[in-house]
């Protein structure tokens, strides 16, 4: 049998016990920080002194079902808001829009990031301003 000596004596560097320790730590980090992806988890492992390749973290997260799905943009563009509000009395149309505090609370509950929440508040403020401009020019629909 012709086999290289290095192949015959090959030993895996990572043992099953070491992999289990890394897997348990990754699962614990993902339980504490549910919106963190593999990059942040890998960085946290490095900070704790565990030298783990990012590809190994991706594989462990995928096998455990801990991959983070990207957030969907749930906000309507401004022109769609104006389209929806077209049939309403524009003096009362701003009552349909949430105030910034309510919007911030709802966005936090949906798990949106701070930048997405600020973008939503800016968008609602812009829509409110556009509606106030339209009140001058659009007749009230009965």
Approximate strand percentage: under 5%
**Class by helix and strand content?**
mainly alpha
Helix % is 55-70%
Continuous helix count: 8
List unreliable stretches of 5+ residues: none
Radius of gyration, taken over Cα atoms and rounded to an integer in Å: 26 Å
SSE inventory with pairings:
Blueprint: H1 5-8, H2 16-32, H3 38-47, H4 54-64, H5 78-85, H6 90-93, H7 100-110, H8 114-134
Helix pairs in contact: 3-4, 7-8
Could you list some keywords that capture this structure?
2 domains, 8 helices, 142 residues, 61% helix, mainly alpha
Outline the structure in words.
The protein is rod-shaped. The N and C termini lie far apart (93 Å). The protein is an all-alpha fold and 142 residues long. Helix 7 (100-110) runs antiparallel to helix 8 (114-134). The chain folds into 2 domains: 10-64; 78-134. The protein contains 8 helices and no strands.
Entry summary:
The chain is an all-alpha fold and 142 residues long. It has helices at residues 5-8, 16-32, 38-47, 54-64, 78-85, 90-93, 100-110, 114-134.
């Amino acid at each position: 049998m012709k086999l290289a000596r290095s192949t015959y004596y090959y030993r895996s560097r990572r043992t099953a016990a070491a992999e289990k320790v890394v897997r348990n730590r990754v699962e614990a980090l993902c339980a504490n920080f549910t919106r963190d992806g593999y990059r942040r988890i890998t960085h946290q492992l490095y900070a704790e002194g565990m030298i783990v390749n990012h590809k190994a973290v991706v594989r462990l997260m995928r096998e455990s079902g801990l991959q983070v799905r990207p957030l969907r943009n749930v906000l309507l563009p401004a022109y769609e808001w104006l389209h929806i509000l077209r049939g309403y009395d524009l003096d009362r149309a701003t009552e349909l829009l949430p105030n910034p505090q309510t919007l911030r609370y709802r966005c936090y509950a949906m798990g949106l990031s701070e930048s997405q929440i600020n973008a939503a508040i800016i968008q609602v403020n812009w829509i409110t301003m556009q509606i106030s401009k339209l009140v001058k020019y659009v007749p009230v629909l009965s």
